[in-house]
Amino acid sequence: MLNNLEMTTQTSPGSIAAIVTAALAGMAMLNTRFAHKAEQGHPPKGRIVDVDGLEVHALVAGRGDPIVLLHGNGSAAGDFVGCGLFDELARHYQVFSFDRPGYGYSERPRDRLWTARAQAEHLASAFQKFGIERPIVVGHSWGTLVALELALLQHRPVKRLVLMSGYYFPTPRADAIAMSPPAIPVLGDVMRYTVSPLVSRAVLPAMLKTMFSPHPVDARFERAVPKSMMVRPWQLKASAEDSAFMLPSAAALRDRYQDVDVPVTIVSGDSDRIVSPKHQSMQLRTRLRKATLEIVEGAGHMVHYAQPALVAALITGPRATTVTRAQTTTSQTQTH
Q1: FRET partner for 88 with CA separation of 20 to 30 A, picked from 2, 7, 168, 248?
Q2: Chain centroid to CA 70: how far?
Q3: pLDDT in tens, 64-74
């Protein structure tokens, strides 16, 4: 009897490890199956082109001068469809709403660090494959960093920028730190295929509520960017990496804003609970040579859902007076 008890005690750690490993493997299989099922239920609706051996997906509509739309962290190309901006702009322009690397149906391999600059260089190559020349580039949230890097590329592939709800200067972000662990090699891989999809599904409602505040979460967004697609392990990797690279990408841009030589329209909601208009958008205006700033009253981080008609008008033709750095102090006081 005693010998049997000793054997059980000696083997129990290995048994526990085997049970845990089996449980994690089972969770990984289920999450992978759910992810593939999500893709079957929401197949790509746009064009997929090969860019240096990687698939890039974009929704494309309309004719005329090109407009490129770049979504934020955790989202996808459908974001701009949900708010109606994509279809509105396509009435008079050719519109391209891209899945940034790792989101939707665009690939994001491990062969590089996908900083804002790396994404800009990759998308600039995609522009050539899609036949896009000197577009107006619209970035939302994390997409603004990529838009700014596009404007700073040596061959200057953009005509004008529209930056919505952006993060431009490195400041502490607890949410970015909390979302970064799935980007950690090995440990992050285990997390993304096991517990992260479950945790993400649990916290998504609160995250979306904060994003859309002070308005309720728009059901059109949830239809256009399904939660089941957002929590796929490979998209969680992209989102975690973007969270980890957000502060370094903003820091890398901070001292180069004076080199942006295209017109820039900055749009921010005065009730944004994700990024501070005062510390981000208003400060950016002081650093750019050709900048306009539109503070939208009653709008939060998802300003393109709160005021899609206004945003569309600002994209097609900014109404605000261009403000140079020398004029900023007076104009910023008037904005308040």
Answers
A1: 168
A2: 7
A3: 999 999 999 99
